[in-house]
Write the structure tokens for this entry.
Amino acid sequence: MKDVFITWNNSLTSANTMKKYNLSVKLYFHMVLGKEPYDISESDLKNLSYGDTVNKFVTPLRNKGVKDSTIKSHLIAVRSFVKMIRREKIFSGIDFGELSSYVLTVESLSTRDTKHHAALSLSELNDMEKWLREKEYQGKSEGLGEKYALLIDFMYKTAVRVSATFHITWASFTLMNSPYGGDWAELNVIDKGRKFNTKYLDKKYYDRLKRVFYNGDDDEEVFGSLSQNTLRNYFREYSEKIGRNVVIHSLKAGAATTLYAQTKDLLLVRDFCDHESVSVTENYIHTQKNPNETGTAIFAMKGGLHFMTSLS
């Protein structure tokens, strides 16, 4: 079991996932069996029941105020570990299908309590960029406001996460002329889960990045002169200014919402956000009614009234 546990850890996609999944798996087996995950036996798994999961794990966590979405995430990690036990074939006579689908799956757990960050609209993005350019900075701050404004603009228009953004180098870009038209800078970036993503920036936008950030070294990180922690502080400061809580992730949520509002193409938004499933994308899109598209507005507009008159 210790070898299985090590193999499972090594199979996880990132250090962050490894940390979260380890905590979840250890929590489950401590609460249900009173054991470390690498100490569980074949008998433990054979005798594990749905009642154990509900009564010894789900209910106590709910009673402590833990959200259903968090408990569901814990069980996803446990099923991942059990899948590795099955793959390594160290135990026989265990119905792993039943274990994963029935014992370790609690369908009554809701995911609607998941907290989604406020989304920044395009106009709000422009307002924050203006604020960053005009705010006062200490020390050697010449051009700093323009740099942070361009940083959030870049993150909004590419949907690249902040951790990946700060690892982009100039060598990550390849200039190209598309057979469909236009001059582009192709950006290849490693994002969450070690996924390899490609983004296309208009050549003029790329040139703007170069004018502001380039120091002559292609191996240099594009936004290396800036700080993630400082950016987070600016978001907190701006939230206080506007009286609404916005965070770095509000950029991606806002971009997804805006793109969907303009295109109504969920698959396009999914690909833009680099999501594996449409259901994840749907969670990103913040419903915001367009007054122009409501029934009242359509009927109240001159064209709508003309349409109704023609029908009568």
Q: What stands out?
A: Residues 1 and 38 are 5 Å apart (CA to CA).
